[in-house]
Amino acid sequence: MKHLRITVDGKSYDVQVELLGEESTAVQPLIGTPVRAASVAAPAAAPAPTAPVATPSGDGGALLSPLSAVVVSVEVAVGQTVTAGQPVLTLEAMKMNTVVSATQAGTVKSIAVKAGDAVDEGQELLVIA
């Protein structure tokens, strides 16, 4: 058993912690600050992941970056026809890839980035018309 003092929200509590694998299982009462039993809530389920979609700008079909990142790959070319929801490029931030999808069907008119480029949140990536 280990005797510890834990402070939570400015209140100190004296506690004893049983270390697994210890021979002694005797519990000794503590004198001092009372220990309140803490209820532990089950962790909430994580929300289902959604595919990030580039933000459409007010300028026709320009797609804006949803986050600051580095362009990993561009899956479309100028003049290519795309459908709404089709992946158009992949961004990487904090070692996590984010697939950016077209927000509308149309033809790729211009591409403002290439693999390896750093982009800021809200920066124009490409235009679909």
From TrEMBL:
Pfam families: Biotin_lipoyl
Claim: Metal-binding is one of the keywords in the record: no
Protein's recorded name: Biotin carboxyl carrier protein
Domain Lipoyl-binding: 50-129
Signal peptide positions on this chain: none
Gene3D superfamilies: 2.40.50.100
Keywords: Biotin
